[in-house]
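Can anyone check this?
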Amino acid sequence: MASDSGDVADTRRTVTDVPTVPSPRQYDDPQRWWILAACCTVAFALQAEPFLWMIGYEIPSSAFGTGWNEYRILASLGVLLFVAFQIIGGVLGDLLGRRKILLIGAVGATLFNLFSLLAPNLLALTLLRAMVGVMGALAFPLTLALIRLTFEGTERTRALVIYTFVTGVGVLASLLGIPFEYWWGWRAALVLPIVVGAIGLYLAWRYVPESRAQGGFGRFEALTAAAWAMVFLAAMFGLVMARLSGTWFNPITVTAGVFSALGLLLLIVWTQFARRQNLFRGAANEVPRHFLSLLLLVSAALSFGLVGYAQMLYGFFFTARQLPGFIAGVALAPVFLGNLFILRWAARFTTSQPAYVSVGGGLAAMGVAMLLTALARPNTPYLFIIPMMMLFGIGFLIASASWAYFFFAALPADLIGLSSGLNRAAGLIGSGLSGVLLATVLALSGTADFKLRMADLTLTPQQQAVALQAVDTALRQGITADDIAQAPGAIVGLGLMAAYREAFSVGVASALILAGAVCLAVAAVAWFWLRGVKRAADDTGETRSQANE
């Protein structure tokens, strides 16, 4: 795979929609669709992993999710760890072999899932689940990298659309852990990722060819990009967490600061070493940091929107609409199942439109869908919510597939594993931020609305606090509006719960408005930035054409 620095720099400056850097593609291999099946199956298994709170971590029922604070700290620390291993997995794949690292990560995730079945206590289960996440983080970026290497032209777009759809369904499939745990115990929740992971391992072992960076590992651009990504992503995560917690000394911000410092140290040491060894080939061959930061920002925004929308809607169906956990998960199906009918159209649209139209338009569709969904209340008919979910799913499918295409074109093709790792790491930061930020908005807005409702009933602040405690008690006891045997105390409780569900829907609406505004803002940035890149590429092409004449 010969890819000199001049090719990389030229691609970075002129890319619009179709990458031109040569790379070791197997797009003429008749087994390429089996390679896609292997990558999609492994990725689905990794996305379908149930969360720890579904299979052992007991979170007390509480109004507006206030009992989740301890778990969110644990999950946020895990996000930072997995971000590092996403990047490490991509780099190791380029260095040692992408098939090899994919198999090591997938085998490790499956084995630690099996070990989790034998966990004697919560501490052991937590450590084993952390190892599942680490091994999955090694493998996950390489599923995307191998698709980039295997397919070319319009087939690559089609493959990325399929991959985006499958991984999105995997996110929803992780919710199956809730009914599996309820019906058969928490160990049953691990059956799906274990079985699908084993199938993916077989397909990857049989069909995926080996590949690595032929241009030589250790190029200036590679480690510089990796180090800057660690600095940028960890700093962004830490700053937001400091803002939410009101202090710089919370464990998440401190850990993020350590990750940022490590990335900065790597950046400084590597720059000095590269200059001493004459590895620095000039600014024209370097991926500019502002350019890489914008790439990471859009990648994070896509995951922020997807995970935030799924979490908020699930909470709305489960709490405000009082649907059982399994049914609340099934109610999210239109987000992705509707895309089954437009996969071919989405592939054609992504190929035929400039990147700024598909990426910016897709993000805008996601934002509009979230703003419209924010209008829903507990008594809103489900049929009226389905079109919003389908609009969101279509927007995400188009924006994500097109963005993956552009992201790979904008970074060195010889280091496709690293590029995938950066993309997935940014996605993890986005999903982590959505889980914490939107949950905080929901809690603050929902609590404020609930207190206003109680104030309208002339309750004092002390009585409002008692009312919130009563909601916590009702949640733990499972009081629902469908209870038939209503003692006087239960009647009071039902009225209180009705007010709580209304307030919860207001909290969800506030969170969705924020998420929608973020997607629309990033859509505007992507539109104007990618449009500028396209114009620059067109101007460069015209200049070259005139020079040749």
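Reply from J.R.: I decoded it. The longest helix spans residues 488-548.
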